[in-house]
Structures are given as C-alpha cells and as structure tokens.
Amino acid sequence: MRYDTRRTLLFTSIGVMAAALAFVWLVLSGGAVGDPLVAVALGGGLGLLVAAVAATAIAARFRARALAIADVGRRYALGDLSRPGPDYGDDELGLAARALDAAAHEQERRIVTLARDRARMQAILASMVEGVLAVDHSGRLQIVNEAARRMLRLDGDAVGRPYVEALRHPGIVEHIGRLLAGGSPETLEFSTSRDVPRDLVARVAPVAGTGRGVTVVLHDVTDLRRTDQIRRDFVANVSHELRTPLTAIRGYADALVDDSDDAESRQRFLAIIQRHATRMERLVKDLLRLALLDAGKEALDCAVVDVPALVAGVVDDLGPAAAARRVRFDVAVSPATRGVRIDAAKAHDILRNLVDNAIAYTREDDIVQVRGAIEHGALHLVVRDHGPGIPPEDLGRVFERFYRVDKSRGRPGGTGLGLAIVRHLAEVHGGTVAVTNEPDGGARFDVRLPFDGGDAAPGA
Ligand code: ADP
User: Fold this and answer.
1) I need a labelling partner for 106 at 20 to 30 A (CA). Which of 55, 207, 222, 404 fits?
2) pTM of the predicted model, to two decimals?
3) Does residue 347 line the site of ligand 1, with CB under 6 A?
4) CA–CA gap between residue 416 and residue 410 (Å, rounded)
5) At a CB cut-off of 8 Å and minimum separation 6, what does 354 contact?
6) Cα–ligand 1 centroid distance for 398 (angstroms)
7) What gap in Å lies between CA 234 and CA 96, rounded to an integer?
8) Is the CB of 145 within 6 Å of ligand 1?
9) C-beta of 442 in contact with ligand 1 (< 6 A)
C-alpha cells in the first residue's frame, strides 16, 4: 500500500472520526441539538464535508500529476527523450510512470543501436566491390548498394520498387522469381550491354535464415576473364612462336640424317638450323626478360650516364644491320644530356630495340633519325624512320606481346616482344614510350625517362 491510497484512507477515516466526534459532542452538549436524528445528520454531514474536501484536494493533485505524465508521454511519442521526466512521486502512479519511462528509454537505446548497426551496414555495403541487392518477400528491392547500382545501371530510386520493374536484365529477374517461388540458390554469368561491356557473375540465394526474400551478390569478373584470356593467348602465342623454328630444325635435322652425302645441302641445312636455333634462343631470352620485368625483379640501377656516348654506342652496334639495308643515321643529341642519372642498361636496351626496328622497317637507302634532349625534367629520346609507319588502328596495340601489325611484314628474326619489353623498361624507369606516325610517312617513337634531379636540369 502506497501513499495515495493511504492518504485517501486517512482522510476518509478523519472524515468518519469527525462525524463521530461531532455526533458525540452534539449528544453530550445535550441542549443545543436536542433531537438525536438531527445530531446524527449534522455529524454525518460535517464528516462528509471534511471527507469531500479532502478527496477533492487529493483528486486535483492526482489529476495534475496524471496530466504531467501524459505530457511526458506525448513528448516521448514525438521522439524527444532528451529532457528528464518530472518527479513522478513515490505512489502507484509514480511507479507506473517510472516503469513506462524506463521502457521508453530502453526503446530509445534499442533504436539508437539499430540506427548505428544500420549505418554500419550501409557503410560496409557502400564500400564493397561486389554488388549487393536484397529483394523482400513481396518482390520489392530493399537494399541496392552503390556497386550494384553501377554494375546494373540502376536508377537512384530503385529501392522500394518491384524488382521486375527496376532490373533490366531478364536472366536475373528470372532467377529471383524462381527463388521467391521457393527455388534453390543459383549462379548465373552474363555480360552487360553498354559501351564497355562487363562480365558479371550473380549469385542468387534466399535471405539466410529467414527464407523470406532473396539476396543477389554480383561479382565483376571482366578483369579476371581478360587476364585469363591474355594468359591463354600468351601460351598459344609462345607455343606457336616456338613451334615454327622447332619444326624447321626438326625437318632439316631429319633431312641431314637421311641424306648426309651432299656436302653443299648439308651446309645449307645446318645454316637454316642455326638461324632457327638463334631465333628460338632470342625468343626464350625475351620471354625470360619479360617474366623478370613482370615479377618486378629488374630493379632500377641509376648512375651518371653520358647519353651522347650511349647513343653513339647503339648506333655503332647496329652499323652492320643498317649497312645491309643501306640505311644512314642522322643523330643529334644535346650536350645537356651528358651526366644525367639514369639506368644506363635499360636506356641502352630501349634505344637498341627502337633503332633496330627503325632499321628493319624504314625504306632501304633511307635515313633513321635519333634525337636526345632534356625536357621537363626527363631525358627525351626520339627514334624516327621513313618506313610505312603503323596503321592508326594498330597504334595502341604495338606494345602488346606478340602483336604484329601484319604477320607478313614482321621482320625476319623478330619475336614480337621487343616493343613490349621497351614499354616495360620505360615504366620501370617511371617513364613512358609513345608511338605516332609522321605526316610525311614513317613511325616516330618518343621515350621519356625522368631522372634524379631532372627538375633542376636545364632545357635543351
Ligand atoms: P618485332 O620483333 O616483330 O619487331 P616488336 O615488338 O619490336 O616486334 O614490334 C611489334 C610490331 O610493331 C612489329 O611486328 C611491327 O608490325 C610494328 N613495328 C615496330 N616498329 C615499327 C616501325 N618502326 N615501323 C613500322 N612498324 C613497326
């Protein structure tokens, strides 16, 4: 029993006692009110008056407290749990109000936890590379993360819409429909049709545990497939490139074994075998070099280099090849390139590959130009020839492994790996290589190799 009940009983008892006392007093006073009935009525009336006044006072106070509690309840309903509630008192009403207050605060705590969990989930979904979609049991999209939006090109208002309307890919729509109808998880692979098509793998499964609704997880496997294709092409190319000289070596070796009497033929066969063996050796050497570059095992080894001397060395080395085609050199290397800090071996190999190609592809009896200068903190080397140049559609591909513009135009002994190695070497150097066609014919290769302290180097 708490205060208000006690107080009500107390005041009722006081009223009854007051009535009894009034009655006794009236009877004992003996004269003032002679009739006992009147005394009883007066005593009772007085008692009732006292009880009524006391009850009204208690009810008014009770009502004011109930209204204050109702106000707090309304404030809570509007979500404002920040201010503390009033002093609820220690009676039953206070107890009930405090219990509701505690329940409201507990709910608020849960809402805050839920909101935090939701924000965390949104952050995780937003940072995922995989696309995620969730469809509820009624077929509406509940969750669409940024990656899914991008992969499937969904509108900004996709959430809340029926998946059959929002998703344009018939394969996924069909799979989700099957899952919602109770089917089992499935995986499907498809390509998106757009300017740059992407290969996607979608895993469609029921929402774990609940069995209501469906989740779709999308993986973009374009790069994986491309790498796989490149690897397969590479293996096929290597096999093909090795098979050609091997078949020749095998054929001429057999011929030697079968018919070893004719000294002249034997000599010719041996020369052919030697040429093909050399080609194979070069191919294997280039392949190993590329493998090393791919694995990042060719570190940069910079030293002060005399670039004019380096260019002269390359031109000298290739003199016999140039002479064989009556090709002359036009070399102009700025003296400012003396003493730049670069990787001499890499710069040499880059230049040798480009000049070697220029000699091979330029017209006979013509000129190959080599230029060297310092430009914007980098060594700038140019090799240009006067050959057929490179068709515009192939310009972007000549640095790919085994890419040849025209198989029949590939120079004898070429591996199709030279320019791929050049690009790798330039990149290890933090530089670039680019190819263009000159307006008056011929290809031009521009190599830029940044070097230590290059920013301070004078222009040339
Ligand atoms: P290759 O050993 O066949 O020369 P590269 O990787 O050096 O291999 O060159 C790839 C292809 O680029 C060549 O097969 C050729 O089609 C083309 N190419 C390279 N240099 C030139 C050039 N100076 N002029 C015309 N085409 C060239």
Assistant:
1) 207
2) 0.64
3) no
4) 8
5) 381, 383, 422, 445, 447
6) 7
7) 79
8) no
9) no
